[in-house]
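Example record

The entry below shows one chain as it appears in the dataset: sequence first, then structure tokens.
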Amino acid sequence: MKPGLEFLVVRGFAVREGRGKWACCFEIRLAAQCGEGCGADCAAGSDEPLLYRGELHGRQFDCELAAADAARAAGEREALLRVDSLKALIIAQHRLRVPPSLVT
């Protein structure tokens, strides 16, 4: 992941669609440390909070590993786009001095 985005976790995985085609799926999650008082049950496989889930269908790859790697890369690109969009929104709000409650 790009430096400065350590607060996000991107996971990529693939689901076979048939004849060498894969659905490349990814999840963007908020990084959270499991520890005392965090409220997450780490032993039960509890994960970080989900921010976004995406899929790319009908991609052609030789194996599941290649498809999962492509899914992770797509997830990282999506995460960067979303973070850049939020940064632009914050800058615009600051410049216009519009209260955040008025921006939807």
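Notes for this example: The chain has a mean pLDDT of 80. The beta strands are 8-18, 21-30, 50-60.
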